[in-house]
Each structure stands twice: as structure tokens, then as C-alpha cells.
Amino acid sequence: MSIYVGVGGWVFDEWRDNFYPKGLSQKRELEYASRRLTAIEINGTYYGSQKPESFARWHDETPEDFVFTLKGPRFATNRRVLAEAGESIARFVESGITRLKDKLGPVNWQFMATKKFDAADFEAFLALLPKSADKIALRHAVEVRHESFACEAFVTLCRKHGVAIVAGCDSAFPCIADVSADFVYVRAMGTVEKEKTGYSKAAIARWAKRAKTWEAGGAPDDLALLAKAAPKKKRDVFLFVISGAKARNPAAAEAIIAAL
Q: Which residue segment(s) compose the domain that 139 sits in?
């Protein structure tokens, strides 16, 4: 499998007696979710450190072909000078994330909507991101939300460092769909309460088609690019349905998986 579809986190009241069966204990929610979806973005790592034992437990509770992506800590990205984030990045990488072993997917480094593009400082941040830890390859993505990043120079910079640009679509933030790494990272944020599956049938089909196009190495023809299309080659795709109508997100992810 090279297309992974899921949601952000797995412990939400909105999903009980909705996505989760009535009476399912909280300690079994990850076990259940990981057998209905193919990936989960762990958001807790954005707010604080997790224990190495937690990463090991999450690995053991999920199927063999399941993947976790991680949000990088806000202590690294929510700062004026990104070039000074080295200590925070190292602390995160050394916190036990490699206990996920082969289930460790990309790290999403999310920036606040007020953070503007400064080419020199942003490149200094990208240069701090390690390529491996404990002999496990690390892949990185950056989620930027200020319109100043919507430029060809930003895409070129990320391609230089092999870092993916998170395509945050269906939201108030810029959706930068340019491919800049050997994988694609997408956050679909437009689910609505009135749709049982969060997105309409047409939108579900559209997301499945986009994922297949990215996987095959192409660029979806309905998403604008800021730079020349990346060379065509097969890529892993990580697609998360997140934000929007949170209660509907698992159903939307399942619908996309079914459409694939």
C-alpha cells in the first residue's frame, strides 16, 4: 500500500457512539480505529512530549501495515527565529518516536498562520531536520498557513531539502499542492455536518482521484501549482481528514478508502 488515509488523533468524545461502537472502552479505541483506517496523525506530540513506552504501545496495538504520522512540537515552530530550533527538534527526535519502528511515517511541522516566509531563516530550519534516527529514515513535511508562502521560491526551497509541503485544502489557509518530496502529505479540512460522510459523494470521489494521481507521480488537474510540476515518479500519499466537522471525519476517511 502506498496511499494511507486517516484522521488526526483517535480520542474524541464526538466519535463515541458515532464512529466507535457503543460501549467500546477508551483503551480499545486505537485498536478499533486502526482497523478501519490506514493511518493516524498523532497531534499530542505538537503540545508536549510523549513517553517512549507510549510509542511502543501504539506500535503494538495496530496492524502490521498501519502508519502513524507525527506533529512536530510547537516549541520548534512557534518561534521568531527558526534557526534556533535545533535543541527542540533534537529533543523531539530523541523522545522515543523511533519506538514506532516501521510504522513511523512523516513528521508534520506545523506553523502558525502569523508566521511569514523568510527564505533564509526557513532554510536554516529545514537544514536542522535530521534524515534519520536510530537507523530509521525520517521524512519531514511543513504545514505553512500564511499567504506569503504561496510562491515558487518556497516550493524550490522545500525541493532542495526534500521536505514535503502539506497541502492543507478546503480551508481558509492557502492550499499549496506542489509536490516537493518523495511523498505527498494532505490535510483535507472541509467536512460539513450535513453530509453523513463529511464530504459529498462527488468530493469523496475527487479526493480518491487526487490521491491516485499523486501516487502515480502526477499532479491533480484541479489544483493549481506555484512552480513547474515535479518529475513523475511513484510516491507514497498520506491523506488526513481533519478539522471541519470533526464528528464526520472518520466517516469521510472511510469513504475515501472505499473509493480507492
A: 3-259
Q: Please report the beta strands in the chain, taking only residues with DSSP state E, as ranges in sequence order.
A: 3-8, 39-42, 67-71, 104-110, 132-133, 136-137, 140-143, 164-165, 167-169, 183-188, 236-241
**Alpha-carbon gap, residue 260 to 258, rounded angstroms:** 5
What's 174's domain CATH number? 3.20.20.410
Going by C-alpha positions, the residue among 55, 14, 65 that lies closest to residue 35 is: 65
Q: For the stretch 193-228, what's the b/e string if a residue is b when 16 or more beta carbons lie within 10 angstroms of its beta carbon?
A: eebebbbeeebbebbbebbebbbeebbbeeeeebbe
Residue pLDDT, tens place only, 178-191? 999 999 999 999 99
The span from the CA of 24 to the CA of 28, in Å, is 7
On the question of pLDDT at 42 being above 80, the answer is yes
